[in-house]
Each structure stands twice: as structure tokens, then as C-alpha cells.
Amino acid sequence: MRYDVTSTGIDSSPTPPALDELEISVFGKGIGECIVGHIGGGEWIVVDSCIGEREPIALEYLQKIGAEAAKVIKLVIISHWHDDHSAGISSVASAAETATIAFAQALTTKEFVTVVKAYSKDPLLPGSSGVDEMERTYDVLRHRRRAGNIREISIGPRFTGADRRLFQRPVGSIPPVEVWSLSPSDAAAQLFLHEIGEWGKPSKNAKRRLVSQDPNTLASVIWIDFDGYRVLLGSDLETSRNPSMGWLAIINSLTRPQGRAQVFKIPHHGSITAHEDMTWTDLVQGPISLVTPYNSSQLPKPTDAARIRELSSQSFIASKPSMRPVLPKDAAVAKTLREQQRTIWRRSTKMGQVRLRWRQHEDPRIELFGAASPL
Amino acid sequence: MKNGTTSATLVGGTYLSNAETAIKEPSQESQAYFTSPDAVAGVPAAENRRVLVLAPSPAWVPSYRFDLLQQWDGSVLSVDGDRILVRLIDKTHPDPSANTEDVSELSFDDLTQEDRQLVCRGAIFSWYIGYLTINGTRHRTSQVRFRRLPGVYKRDLDTATRAADEIRRDLNWD
């Protein structure tokens, strides 16, 4: 297998994939990730979103290769509501006028939608918890419904969950493809509703920023089968001691699609909390592993990277995790921080792209752009 | 001295406000006014009464001034023992690109006793560095104060619930 490295920009000579070619592009910049996939016939899917130079990276990339988002994106998947995976997803959903939008059914429940309305757009809460994007996504869906002239299937959402087929193209002139979600399990969804419900109760305690479930068992893992070449996108799904949740629930499922994947988007930025030994024996086979970093938690750690390299045939990372100290502009501020032995660290913002392309009877081609590199 | 008053009358061992002394008629039972040490014998007690005025001298009023150099707003990412990992947003030099995020580590020693109770994942705070001038003396200071934002009240949740019901009705999610 060969791989080429392009050292300038995201892609100095953007060319779209061939109609019978699979493409999986993983974007990451230390905070946030996005996967853009060509599933043949000029049709694309987008899983999660992060911001590029000014817009969601998915839209910037498709524009660069001359693809019109409104026509070519067929499926937009929000694997979970956390802000590092959903930044700009509502803009992608809005641009993808004919796409099916998919996310977990738990995100349509009264408990969650109430929490979204209670915590979104709060000027006192710094930053975003992802609920703002979910609120905007609901608005996109409501706009579609009111428009009235969109095919019913494009209004959405389609629900992700254990062993659900989200997209299928049968055998024809273009290679067949199936896109499945393998999670969340019903048990994980129930637990999520119980926990999110606590945020929707009156409280005299000081209001705080919405925090995520720990561990994350609600994330939607995606399985793509492109003419027998399989891709497993692990999102942020973590392991759980409960065999009906997390990776064990997927491994133990009797109704999931069969086979083992040749490409693995490593879950939860390579953290040990998302590692399950049986994933590497039952779900993947000597895969090409793709990782996105999460700088504030310094993921993947060196031990994580070593573990992934050992289990993979090849491994790549979208952007090397890095943080650099911030030097305050004001000398008095800098002096104060020194005296207190405090350092402000800034996460890397360099975007990288790992692009894999494959077609029948050929080896996969891997290209690295921007800050991407071998793991 | 009662709060908000700057002068008072000692009556029967209790200070009364000017308003209260104005309407209080001296009586046989309330002859225990503050009696001047130079009271003249044979003069009615009421004439020997002195009003004790306690007006603070202007020099005693402390002056405060805070010159802000740097402010971050932040939230707690995680707590590990004494270490508090926080996410920061620079309010003094905001980055319009929205592609940067800063993190740092605080410790419980940086916080007041009251603020320590508020530390948990997601808790909101502000961090100020600047010069505090008290009565003309200037100190460089760093303060972390956790925000006591109003809790989530039932009325807020009722509003959110109605909005959520409308969204779910619109999208046939009932």
C-alpha cells in the first residue's frame, strides 16, 4: 500500500473521487472532528461536523472539489450532541437540502428537547454545550416540514440505534453500499434519558454548563459496507461494564451486519476508555486506523498511540495533539501568572485531513493534508 | 446604632434613631436618658439630656478601586483531587476566529471557602487579574469567583417545556 503526503494547505489539487470509488476523509484540528464520505455515484455522507476556516469543513471541502452540497449529500449523521462533534452541523443540514438527517431517537424526546430549550442561547454560560446546534437542527427540520415540497424522507430525522440500516443502494452500475448505525443500544438510550432528565428539573443550585454523560454510551457508531469493503466509524462511543451498552452491546449483537471492517475511525480520540479488546477481534481485521485528537485531554496519549499502532496495519492522525502556552499581552498579567505558577494553554487549531480512497481490485490510497500525519 | 443612620440617641441603654427620638415623649418611666456628666443639679433631667451623635468621619470611609487588566470566563472540565481543569474564554482579548480555546489548571487554594462548595463539572466562574487600590495603596491581585447564576426555576422549565412541546408537535414526535 502506498500513501502520499501533501504538505501545503488542505488539498493543493482537489479532485473528486471516481463514481465507483469509496472515499473516507477524516478531518480534525484538536477540537472537533468531521467525516466526509463518498459512497459512489457522486453521493456523499457527512458524519458530525467541525468548523474549517470559516464554515463547516464538510461544506468547504465539497465546494473545493466542485460538489454541490445541496444535491450530493444524501445522509447527514449527528453521532451525538457534544459540541466538539456538532459544531456547524445545523449549517450542513441546512445546505444538504435533499439529505436525510439522522440522529439518536433519544434526542427527540421531551426530556432532551426541554433541556435544549432551557440551556441554549444562555449568554451567562460561556461557550456552547452542543445544545445550540441541536436547537438549530430542529429549526432546519421544522423549516423543511413547513416548506411542504420536500420529499417526506428528507424531512427526517431517521433514527440511529442498534443495527439500523440508514441507507442502501442495491447492486447496479454503481457499487452497492449499505450504511448502518450499530448504536446506541436501547439500554443506553434509557440511561441517557434518566440522566438528562435530572437537568430538566427545577434546581436552586447555581446554574452550570451542561456536561456530557460519562462514559459516553449514546454515541452512534456507523458501519459502511461499500461493495464488501467495510468501514467502522467509532464516534465517541466508550466501553461500559454493562454488556447491554457501549462496545460490548455491539459485539454481542446477533443482528448487526456481518463481516469485519478494513478501516476503523478510532473512537473517543483513542482514549483507553473506548478500548475494548473484542472490538479488534470481532469488528475489525488488521485495519487502517484513523484518529482525531482532542487537545484539552491530551488525547491520544502516547500509550494510546502505541496501542493503536500495534493493533493496526497502518494508522494516521488528522492533526497531532498539541498545546502551546499562551503569553499574555500585558506584562503585569504575565507576572501574576508566573507568581502563581499558572499557565494558560491554547489548543492547536491546525486542521488536518486523512483521505482514504478505494475501488475494487486496487489497494487503498491514503493521502495526508494539512496537519495530518502517520500516528 | 441602627443600620442606615448616622446619628442616634442613647435612650434607656438603647440607641434610637432621630425619628424615634423625635416622636418619643419623655416620661417618668423613660428618664434614663444619657445624662451628661456635667449635669447641673436641680435642672430637669430632660434639659440635661444630651444627644449622642455618631457620625463617621469622612476619613474613615474606605475607598476601593479595581483596574481590570485581564478577565477570563470559564467552566470546569474536570476535578482531580486538588486540581481543577478549566476551559477559559478570553474576555479581554477575544479571538474573533472562534477557533481557539484555552485551558488551564486551578487549585482549591485559589478559591474562597464559599466558592469551593460550587466546584463541579460545568460550574461557571470568572477570573480577574488587575490592580486593587484600597485607600491609596495599590495591590496587584488575581481573583477567581464562581458564579452564582440563578438556578433553573420551575417557571423557566415550564417555558422550556412549552417550547419543546411546540417543536415536537411541529415535527410529529409525539
**Between the first and last Cα atoms of chain A, what is the distance in angstroms?**
16 Å
Sequence stretches where pLDDT stays below 50 over 5 or more residues of chain A: none
**Tally of distinct domains of chain B:** 2
From the spread of the alpha carbons, the general shape of chain A counts as globular
Q: Sheet bearing the most strands of chain B, described?
A: 5 strands, antiparallel
- What's the story with the biggest beta sheet of chain A? 9 strands, mixed
CATH class of the largest domain in chain B: Mainly Beta
CATH topology of the largest domain in chain B: OB fold (Dihydrolipoamide Acetyltransferase, E2P)
Let me know the average pLDDT of chain B: 74
Order of helices and strands of chain B: EEHEEEHEEH
Biggest interface found:
A-B, 52 and 55 residues
| Proportion of residues in β-strands of chain B | 25-35%
Radius of gyration of chain A: 20 Å
**In what order do the strands lie side by side in the largest sheet of chain B?**
5-4-3-6-7
Mean pLDDT metric of chain A: 88
Structural class computed from helices and strand pairing of chain A:
alpha/beta
**What structural category do the secondary elements of chain B indicate?**
alpha+beta
Tell me the fraction of residues in β-strands of chain A, as a range. 15-25%
Describe what this molecule looks like in 3D:
The complex is a heterodimer of chains A (375) and B (174). Chain A is globular. Chain A has helices at residues 57-64, 69-72, 83-86, 89-95, 110-119, 131-147, 152-155, 186-199, 246-251, 277-283, 302-311, 331-340; strands spanning 3-5, 22-28, 33-39, 44-47, 73-77, 100-104, 158-160, 164-169, 177-181, 222-226, 229-233, 261-265, 284-291, 314-317, 323-325, 345-347, 352-358, 365-370, 373-374. Chain A has one domain (5-374): Ribonuclease Z/Hydroxyacylglutathione hydrolase-like (Metallo-beta-lactamase, Chain A), CATH 3.60.15. In chain A, a hairpin with a 4-residue loop joins strand 3 and strand 4. Chain A contains twelve helices and 19 strands. Chain B folds into two domains: 5-47, no CATH class; 64-146, OB fold (Dihydrolipoamide Acetyltransferase, E2P) (Beta Barrel), CATH 2.40.50. Helix content of chain B is 16%, strand content 33%. Chain B is built from three helices and seven strands, in the order ββαβββαββα. The N and C termini of chain B lie far apart (64 Å). The relative contact order of chain B is 0.12. At the A-B interface, helix 5, helix 6, helix 12 and strand 16 of A face strand 3, strand 4, strand 5, strand 6 and strand 7 of B. Strand 16 (345-347) of chain A pairs antiparallel with strand 5 (102-107) of chain B.
